[in-house]
Task: structure prediction
Amino acid sequence: MEKGLRRRPLAQGTTGAAIKSPQANMNNRRIVSSNYYFNAQSLMVLICLTASLLFLPLILPPLPPPPLMLLVLPIGIFLVLLILAFMPSDVRNIASSYL
Result:
């Protein structure tokens, strides 16, 4: 992993700018930009969201259970997706003709 970061000795009469390629500059930018995955604003949003998930259940009163008809909807969606997942398919009918 360290092999790509080693510097080569400069030949006589050449400058460092003449040896650097555009691809090397792109690699340097990619390394620098990957160090900062979250900026300050997104980090604050994540911290506030985490705090609300931790403290709001302790403060708010418990909710009554939902009506039975509202529980049928997600179970129905789950069953339809389960049936579609295990349904055999013919790949020749799925593949498009222009490929």
Remarks:
- The mean pLDDT is 75.
- Helices lie at 16-19, 22-34, 40-59, 68-86, 91-94.
